[in-house]
Automatic annotation (TrEMBL):
Name of the molecule in the record: EAL domain-containing protein
Source superkingdom: Bacteria
Ranges for domain EAL: 22-272
Interval of the full protein contained in this chain: 352 to 629 of 629
Length: 278
């Protein structure tokens, strides 16, 4: 019995420690916004046919003064739970639009918006404000959402998607195939692009179903008038499969890792010099 109590105490201490760590991270997150510890990196998206860069996805990083680099997979969920995702998301929108407006080629920028942000009545206004402040035309901004937005009120979701379209902004369905994928969503909601999750792309050069899935999603996109982007392309073999399967755009380490805005801009300047737009 005493041993049982000891085990319980151990768990209690563990729980305390975990909650304290979380609480500390939450306080750090609040400070991080004020202290500008966040950085946006930009990863190229290329046209599969020409390998030309047609846009960049903005990906946020947190440089924690003691813990070093913290991945968005770790702090975005916490930011969502604490409501800090709203100011963070606004910062991401403004920074991404401002950087893109200064690029030497008029390619697009994609910004991730979490389900919590999406639910907020402030989102459309925040997008409009970021466009206005930066001077970036709405047609150069893509908003990436995940299937989780579909678990909410669908009438409200549809209204927000339409208002974003009204600003000229395009909407991409991110990580397609991993969540609560339903083909009826693709029919009912006005997405402009499907991003095929990297879990399928990863297995493209192996034997198996991945190829059939990628090819089917690309075909589906084509017939629904949506573009398709393969995420996480790392090898030449995967790239060649994608091209054969009719996928239109690709993103992954094969073409470039997420990089600081300055490097993204230099890459575009280089592209313009060696391969002028048609
Ligand atoms: P995501 O939107 O699906 O972004 C793609 C992720 O795949 C990025 O991870 C990117 O660095 C990674 N990636 C790209 N190419 C490759 C590749 O060839 N191989 C591999 N193994 N990985 C690749 P990252 O930057 O760690 O972001 C993770 C997730 O965090 C994102 O997934 C997105 O859901 C979320 N996130 C990132 N930035 C933001 C943001 O500003 N706001 C919100 N709400 N979420 C964000
Ligand atoms: Mg994304
Ligand atoms: Mg994705
Ligand atoms: Mg993802």
């Amino acid at each position: 019995k005493s041993e049982g109590r000891g085990t319980w105490r151990f768990f209690e201490r563990e729980m305390d420690a975990q909650m304290q760590a979380r609480r500390r991270l939450e306080l750090d997150l609040r400070r991080a916004l004020a202290e500008q510890e966040f950085q946006l990196l930009f990863q190229p998206l290329v046209h599969v046919g020409s390998r030309r860069i047609i846009g960049f996805e903005a990906l946020v990083r947190w440089h924690h003064p003691e813990r070093g680099l913290i991945s968005p997979a770790e702090f975005i969920p916490l930011a969502e739970e604490t409501g800090l995702i709203m100011p963070l998301g606004e910062w991401v929108l403004h920074t991404a639009c401002r950087e893109a407006a200064s690029w030497p080629e008029q390619v697009s920028v994609a910004v991730n918006v979490s389900a919590v942000q999406f639910r907020s009545p402030l989102l459309v206004d925040a997008v409009a404000a970021a466009l206005r402040a930066s001077g970036l035309p709405g047609s150069r901004l893509e908003i990436e959402v995940t299937e989780s937005i579909m678990l909410q009120d669908n009438v409200a979701t549809l209204a927000i998607l339409h208002r974003l379209h009204g600003l000229g902004v395009r909407i991409s369905m991110d990580d397609f195939g991993t969540g609560y994928s339903s083909l009826s969503y693709l029919r009912s909601f006005p997405f402009d692009k499907i991003k095929i999750d990297q879990s399928f792309v990863r297995d493209l050069d192996k034997q198996g179903d991945a190829r059939a899935i990628v090819s089917a999603i690309s075909g589906l996109g084509r017939s629904l008038g949506m573009s398709t982007t393969a995420e996480g392309v790392e090898t030449q073999e995967q790239f060649e499969q994608l091209r054969a399967d009719g996928c239109l755009e690709a993103q992954g380490y094969l073409f470039g890792r997420p990089m600081p805005a300055r490097d993204a801009s230099a890459l575009l300047r280089h592209q313009r010099a060696v391969q002028p737009a048609g």
